[in-house]
Amino acid sequence: MRTERITIDNAYAEASIAKIKSTVGNGRALCALSGGVDSTVCAALMSRAIGQNLVCIFVDTGLMRLNEGDEVEKLFHDNFNSQFIRIHAEDRFLSKLAGITDPETKRKIIGEEFIRVFEEEAKKLGAVDFLVQGTIYPDIAESGVGQALVKSHHNVGGLPDVIDFKEIIEPLRDLYKDEVRALGTTLGMPDTLVHRQPFPGPGLAVRVIGEITKPKLDTLRHADHIFREEIARAGLSTKIWQYFAIITDTKTVGMQNNARTYGNVIALRAVHSTDATSAQVAHLPYDLLATIVERITTEVTGCTRVVYDVTPKPPATIEWE
Ligand code: XMP
């Protein structure tokens, strides 16, 4: 792993843009957008360099947070001058994932289905010259180069085999996450985008333990939305690296209106980190946690219990799967 830091300033951004311009020339480039910081900053850099010669495809897997697909689309239209295609593919992803519980199998299915959906759309465009990948330095390091495989990270890995293109560009492959954010700011992107917390390629799939179903996803989305809303209300959204809810595969007994209930356990995770290779648990104020628990157990149907994960990375990873 690299230990020295790269200085991100206008000169770095201009040099990256110039390098992309000279590589791509008048060619056409194709980029997969996930809505996360990495792919968005990557697209911003590419868009700045080649404008309308960049085509961005956003595969809406149905594994996004509440309203996120619409937010990604709006953000793109407000900030970019390139072509944008959104594919609504929720049904496809959920039917492929039906009955699957193993985390690595889920990741592989999502990765493969992503490629298929992307490929179908890309084929409509005909040949492109370049395929852009938003891979960042920790993705490369953690996916097995120089150390044991931790999880098979899904960004757009695998695409090279199936898309008709000449070359791959990975403009962010040397950068840690904080450097990617600094680059976003340098490129004049809004804080809401730059300080958006990292979101994994496989989306909420890695936060639904056990089988992934639409009802579980909807329950998770609702709980996660409440958690994020309260973190924002407490003024903590830019002070915590990553915070999210998980829907466990455990059901427990609860009580409502003097009657016994039996419902889902939601877990909450909030961590501080600088590059995601290690993480410390955020010491959220107890009153804030109490408010969140109160809201989730009353507002989210079928949720009887909420737990807070206090495990650092290592030994745990940030995501539960
Ligand atoms: P873990 O769970 O490995 O996560 O400690 C480290 C960081 O990476 C994110 N993450 C992913 N990002 N594709 C991604 O692009 C993935 O498959 C993936 N898995 C985890 C995670 O959210 C955290 O920020």
SSE arrangement:
Elements: H1 10-24, E1 29-33, H2 37-50, E2 54-60, H3 68-79, E3 83-88, H4 90-97, H5 103-125, E4 130-132, H6 137-142, E5 167-169, H7 177-186, H8 191-194, H9 214-233, E6 242-256, E7 259-272, E8 280-281, H10 286-299, E9 303-308
Parallel strand pairs: 1-2, 1-4, 2-3, 4-5, 7-9
Antiparallel strand pairs: 6-7, 7-8
Bound molecules: xanthosine-5'-monophosphate.
Name the shape in a single word: globular
- Structural class call reads alpha/beta
Number of strands: 9
> Counting H and I runs of at least 4 residues, what is the number of helices?
10
* Percent of residues in β-strands: 15-25%
Q: Fraction of residues in helices? A: 25-40%
Quick overview:
With 321 residues, the chain is of the alpha/beta class.
Descriptive account of the structure:
- This protein is an alpha/beta fold.
- Helices cover 39% and strands 19% of the residues.
- The chain is built from ten helices and nine strands.
- It has a five-stranded parallel β-sheet with strand order 3-2-1-4-5, sandwiched between helices. Strands 6, 7, 8 and 9 form a four-stranded mixed β-sheet that branches.
- Helix 1 packs across helix 2 (37-50) and helix 2 crosses helix 7.
- The longest helix is centred in the middle third of the chain and has 23 residues, at 103-125.
- The structure holds xanthosine-5'-monophosphate (XMP).
Relevant terms:
single chain; 321 residues; alpha/beta; five-stranded parallel β-sheet; four-stranded mixed β-sheet; 10 helices; 9 strands; binds xanthosine-5'-monophosphate
